[in-house]
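Self-study notes.
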Amino acid sequence: MEEVKAKMNSKYYLAWAKDEGIRKKGANGGFVTATLVSALENDFIDVALVVEKKSVYEGIPVLTSDPEVVKECAGSLHGAPVNLTKYVVEHAAKKRIGLPVKPCDARGIIEQAKRRQVNLDNIFMIGLNCGGTLHPLRMREMAADFYGLDPDSVVREEIKEGKIFLVSEEEGGEEKEKWIKIDELEAKGYGRRDACKSCITKIPT
């Protein structure tokens, strides 16, 4: 840990959830989930907007004031490319709301604020480092054709280090991880959505 501290400067911090359950379920230590839970419990926000995972290919936006629901929605979901802006405008324009945002979400919310549809003073955005999202149907095809997996056996996915990782659950509950470089997949028409490939803002600021 001392070596890590020595390499860091005042602009960057390592953070993770103190709650072991959140830390285990979160994509990278559960910091975002823990922050939203704390914001609700300490009356910093009225509601949180999170995405409930139905599968690696489907997620449903959920507006909640229940910290337990936020905990259940921990983790990343690249195969469900929802834009959260309209949910903020339609359901929480007059509430204090907290939500994790991809760059496209942040830009959309800011544009709606310019049109006076929302008040940025009431919106607590947590910017996410975004490597892109995948179209769910193409992702299913990709799992079968390139990874040699039953699409329904895929339980987790991750984009990191220029690769797309898929984790499948085999018979007996054993998990198996496979990865392919994003460039190889995209050269064959798969991988990230076109809008994500052209995005130059990977971290909302």
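Second protein, same conventions, sequence then structure:
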Amino acid sequence: MSQKIYEMVTDKIIQLLQAGVIPWRRPWRSGAAVNWQTQRPYRGINAFLLEAGEYATFKCITEAGGTVKKGAKGEIVVFWKWLEKENEETGELEKIPLLRYYRVFNIATQCEGLQSKRDGGAQQDHDPIEEAEQLIAGYADRPPIRFAPGRAFYRPADDIISVPPLVDYDQPEEYYCTVFHELVHSTGHAKRLNRSGITELAAFGDENYSKEELIAEIGAAMMCAVCGIDNTTMENSAAYINGWLRALKEDQRLIVQAAGKAQRAADYMQGITFESSEA
């Protein structure tokens, strides 16, 4: 039965990928880096440059009556500025992109005299999904899971997982999909399945990193299917996978390769030996 579910999940993901990109979002409420004044999230590379929090420029902070703490170093925010230049051959005006940046400071940790403008949103009172909890508990040598808002990650050096708590998600299914994603990463540890995407140092966006992300997201979708979580999480998974496929030159054969490794990870988490899973 599990084998059939894996195949159905993989086929569905491939169908969604072929249908086009589906906008992906972080499923938890808190944690985006936002402009303090407008509460708009930073976009593009700035979403990766800034940790979760509210940010403002020195000018904005002082005009609002706040101060920057002594010794605080601002973070950069980059943007494109378009310059007009006359083409010497045609005489026509051309727009030339020029990459610029400015510095911002975290309101909570680097400033004084300013209050957060976040309303925090209403906390969600979700009941745990028993089948998903049983799968998590059944992962015999899983790393400890800690809960902190704003980020989800697996840290191989310490063999720990950190995810936003259940109350930070609009839907409980999104919480479990996030947990499963990080748990699949953890199966790659040297003492478990020893995957190169975890055991070898990988730079963000390089081939090893991208392959490991594919494995983790496909594996998470498989685990969601095993415990009967509604496929509303599937579209988010497909869009996430598509981003990494694009980084790998959109070679969709990779999704089949990644699905095989994701299956091994899902089997491992459930305590299924590879011999018995093929029976």
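Instructor comment on the second fold: Residues 207-226 form the longest helix (20 residues).
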